[in-house]
Amino acid sequence: MIDCGALFDKVYNEYYHKIVAYFRRRVKYDRDAAEDLAQQTFFKLWTYMLQNGGKVVNVRAFLYAIAKNVRADYYRRSRGYCLSTELCVDLVKCDDPERSEDIVYAALAKLSAQDAKLIKLRIMGYSYAEISKLLGANVSTLRTRYLSAKRRLKKIINSEDEF
Question: Is 94 left (phi over 0), alpha (psi -120 to 50) or beta?
Answer without folding.
Answer: beta
